[in-house]
């Protein structure tokens, strides 16, 4: 069992909270106006990218030594036509620079809230969490916290793979926004 703090109480935050609670973890939420007293072993940034950056800056000391899960897709929400990070980098890499004493993991950005709630992509395939990090123990801890949930887990490699995960998340979001797939759809990983 892990102690998990979720920054954000929106659709993704609530879906992730349910997944981790169902898996037997202790979950607490921090909203934008809530005081940050304590943070669990795993902190999940279930907020837009710009808010994740602000949390990283404001809470870097409290996040030191913690596993910090970045679920963001750094989409330009004004145009829905580009990512707001350099093409050779990622939101997760930027957050890792801001949190040098934390163990940053990119995960859940290729999952929609609906597919987390049902543990299925479009009602057809098991929902898979892809996780990238330079810290192998952080990925194993996250995987362990998901045991008991109905989700599958795949180690996507080092944090350098966050760039590809964010590109995949971006494509999936634009497909859903253009009604090419449903918000319960997306990409499935078959093994």
TrEMBL record:
InterPro entries: NAD(P)-bd_dom_sf (IPR036291), STEAP_metalloreductase (IPR051267). It comes from the Bacteria. Coiled coil: none annotated. This is Dinucleotide-binding protein. It comes from Furfurilactobacillus rossiae DSM 15814.
